[in-house]
Amino acid sequence: MSNKIRVLYIDDEDNNLNSFKASLRKDFHIITAIDAEEGLKIAEEEELHVVIADQRMPGLTGVEFFEKLMKINPDPVRILLTGYSDIASVIDAINKGEVYRFIDKPWNLEQIKNAIKNAAEIYLTKRELKDKNERLKKVHSEMNQFVYSLSHELRGPLMSISGVSKLAKMEAKDPNIIEYFDMIDSATLRLDDFIYKMLDFYRSTKIDNKVSKIDFKDIVNQQLEAYKEKWGLDDINIAIDVNQTSDFYSDDAKLRVILNNLFSNAYKFQKLESESKFIKLTVDVKDAVATVKIEDNGIGIDEKYHTEVFNLFHRATQRNVGSGLGLYMVKESVTQMGGKIQLESKLDHGTIFTITLPSLKG
Fold it and tell me: Which residue has the higher pLDDT, 36 or 2?
């Protein structure tokens, strides 16, 4: 195929078609059509960079032709040849995005050459951007799939190690040996927690939302049972209040990412010496908006870090219990679902996260 810019020119006068082709054939690959219908057939079959059409033609006008062309082949850049009397329809076509530019008749050779070259540059830039976007989507999808698969592959052996360690502790008599197995259990627990973070990262960064009907009571109860199994929570006063009287639609996985990470932070960043630890979770659903609030009386977050805590791998405390991923994933999930997140916290005075999420179905 020729490397020349491929131009389709539509005009209902043979003389104009011949003149156009003769004047520009050395610089461009010119294809001509005598009317709009023929032009549309060519556009279905040929690769085109630029399409030029006369406004005044029998049957379809130039603007009407471009409206149909956009449905068949929207990629070529469109130029309209017109007289001054047609300016209103030209402006309308430009505003609708159907036409890149218009050229007055009779056209000037250098003017139309430059217009074609500029239009072709736009076409090639858009095509390059489209190709890069497609490659980026592919890489993003493959990376997410890699993380997801790797996480599952790692959890199997990890659970085996944890199980063997627990059996060994039941049979061991030497306190020193039991202490070693406790260290193994602690390490496997931390690694398992990090794997879960990777899965949450995969879920939170997915661009598309998988929308389903949400029952907040069910989700919160399921998550709370998992938290109790993992952490015990016997030394913390847990208060749950879910008020949902209407249907709500959202991404279940991303909601769990939000709840998991905020609850996890509320638990991990409690004051170690406190005898009155509490975590309060409130969910209110009203007028197709869900408000989720998690409050604790833990160590709090210094105000100077409030704008930074949602950054990837940022830690606002020296306590070495976090990966620096949690709040980043919360913010990503909230953003992906069109919501907002608000932080209220003072050092040594606890933290409140308030999240508002719109229903993703009318």
Answer: 36
